[in-house]
Automatic annotation (TrEMBL):
Membrane-spanning ranges: none
Listed cofactors: Fe cation
Record-level Gene Ontology MF annotations: 4-hydroxyphenylpyruvate dioxygenase activity; metal ion binding
Keywords annotated in UniProt: Dioxygenase, Iron, Metal-binding, Oxidoreductase, Pyruvate, Repeat
Free-text remark on how the cofactor is bound: Binds 1 Fe cation per subunit.
UniProt cross-references to InterPro entries, sorted A to Z: 4OHPhenylPyrv_dOase (IPR005956), 4OHPhenylPyrv_dOase_C (IPR041735), 4OHPhenylPyrv_dOase_N (IPR041736), Glyas_Bleomycin-R_OHBP_Dase (IPR029068), Glyas_Fos-R_dOase_dom (IPR004360), VOC_core (IPR037523)
Organism, scientific name: Asanoa ferruginea
Keyword Repeat: yes
Taxonomic superkingdom: Bacteria
Binding-site residues, Fe cation: H202, H285, E366
Protein name: 4-hydroxyphenylpyruvate dioxygenase
Residues of the VOC domain: 33-163, 199-355
A biological process term (GO) from this entry: L-tyrosine catabolic process
Amino acid sequence: MTQALNETDQATADRLIGAVEHDIAADPFPVKGLDHVLFLVGNAKQAAHYYSTAFGMTCVAYRGPEQGFREYAEYVLTSGTARFVFRGAVSPEAADAAHVARHSDGVVDIALEVPDVDAAFAYAVRQGAAVHTEPTDVTDEHGTVRYAAIETYGDTRHSLIDRSRYSGPFLPGFVARKPIVDRSAAIAAGVQPKRYFQAVDHVVGNVELGKMDHWVEFYKRVMGFTNMAEFVGDDIATDYSALMSKVVASGTRKVKFPLNEPAIARKKSQIDEYLEFYDGPGAQHIAIATNDILASVDAMRAAGVEFLDTPDSYYDDPELRARIGTVRVPIQELKDRKILVDRDEDGYLLQIFTKPVQDRPTVFFELIERHGSLGFGKGNFKALFEAIEREQEARGNL
Ligand code: TYF
Ligand code: FE
């Protein structure tokens, strides 16, 4: 099989996303990691094609009318440990058709893999989480998966999944499926195509004005997450762009959820623009971790993915040069590709942001290559927010 996951992939992914030693057994809400991100989209067949061709992902599983599931077609794509599921409504009566009509393409489930669904669910509900799905077993010839789901911001939820007694390609009912892009000729010729990313680093939520602390407290209380140091307060909010941000993470740091809210500033906040067009809170961006951001950006650009622009002045700024010091490539390589760089006491990171990946100015992606830094690119907020505001202006939303 192509690009099959092994222990080395798991170790690589954990290193890339900055996982730390942590005894999950001592946790009130033990989390093994991110299981998958479920997108509800208008056309899952075409989404699966885009993420295969433009994001280099591999389709590994499918479920649809052919398997007796008349409501939806669902495609499971992976890249290293990252797993995205694209679900499109087949039946006009499918509940998810209404979700797409309201929000357009977006993230509905940020699913977590847990060792004990019942214990995690009971803890979350005791701590005030709203129930989406009670714990239940689903079974097919590959074994049993136990899962439950709790509600989070907007129409978003967190499934809690125990797949330790399951050996199928995804979840019961799904069948293995061959990749959409045929890379077999290259593989036969001895060239193993390089993945554009190996793991999901973080998933960011946009919530309403005044609700950021509510959701930070939610993740602390319900999931035992803790605050990470990085946050954007009033100072950055009013100087650069109108948002406030705090980050919560699981004990291992494998699951990291920054939460943004709009702040009142001179201009219309990029978060307000999202909330208006998504018609409520939801997932804003997914950061995907790579060990070669230069190659990934080149490949994705060549396939037609649009990235935010960064002016040359960013790279020519002597203050930035001094702060950044030496990174693994000459700054010119980053400048050529508009890749941003930030450094803190632990190390540095390289990052770049795509433009929104659907018609509405809502969900986008971030490519991130960490070298020690566990941050989120705080030093880049000014340059990044100015780039976002140029796009907002072009859309007539500023
Ligand atoms: O995840 C983060 O916090 C960074 C920075 O609209 C960021 O990627 C924050 C807000 C935003 C885009 C990026
Ligand atoms: Fe980010």
